[in-house]
Amino acid sequence: MQKLTRIIILSIALLMISGCSYFGVYKRDLPQGNLVTQGMVEQLRPGMSRRQVVDLMGSPLLEAPFDASQWDYVYRLDEAYGDVEQRRVTLTFSGGRVVDIEREGDFSKAPPLGDERGIGPDSEATSADQPTPLDNVTPDRP
After folding, report:
1. Are the C-beta atoms of 22 and 34 separated by less than 8 Å?
2. Exposed (0-12), middle (13-18) or buried (19+): which is 89, by Cβ within 10 Å?
3. Could you tell me the domains of the chain?
4. DSSP-based three-state secondary structure for 94
5. Per-residue confidence in pLDDT tens, the chain, 142 aa
6. Contacts of residue 88, Cβ cutoff 8 Å, sequence gap at least 6
7. 91: burial class by Cβ within 10 Å (0-12, 13-18, 19+)?
8. What's the CA gap between 21 and 98, in Å, rounded?
9. Residues 6 or more apart whose Cβ sits within 8 Å of residue 56
10. CA atoms of 132 and 138, how far apart (whole Å)
11. CA 104, CA 107: separation in Å to the nearest integer?
12. Transmembrane segments in this chain: where (predicted)?
């Protein structure tokens, strides 16, 4: 009986710790916020209207709650096994027009947008030999 109890306790203990891994858990890159590229920032000019900014950059991630004259576009990439990269563009408006553009972060290189395979499981149906749904679409003619 005592031997059976030891075997059961040992089995339960092995089962409990088998879910833990010595090598750590899987991590992935975590991008958050507005994607801000150097090309977008280079197109910003003082005197642009709010509508022109929204057309170029999209909606801001942050608007000052008590003063709507400041918009912040923030992009943050928390790399799984690396550093945290953050880019920030702060636009200040006066009379509905951009008067100041502040940049923070490294805009010289494009942020990584994922792996080459894309999102989702691999599928042989999307190989180059088989047509995709867009192959049969004819463009609109003027």
Report:
1. no
2. buried
3. 26-107 (3.30.1450)
4. strand
5. 788 898 999 888 877 776 665 566 677 888 888 888 888 888 999 999 999 999 998 888 777 777 778 888 888 888 877 788 888 899 999 988 999 999 888 877 776 665 555 444 444 444 455 555 545 545 554 4
6. 36, 72, 73, 74, 75, 102, 103, 104, 105
7. buried
8. 52
9. 40, 43, 44, 48
10. 13
11. 8
12. 7-26
Provide the residue type at 135 as one letter.
Answer: D
Q: Which amino acid is at 13?
A: A
Q: How many CB atoms lie within 10 A of CB 121?
A: 5
Tokens of 101: 């553009």
DSSP state of 110: P
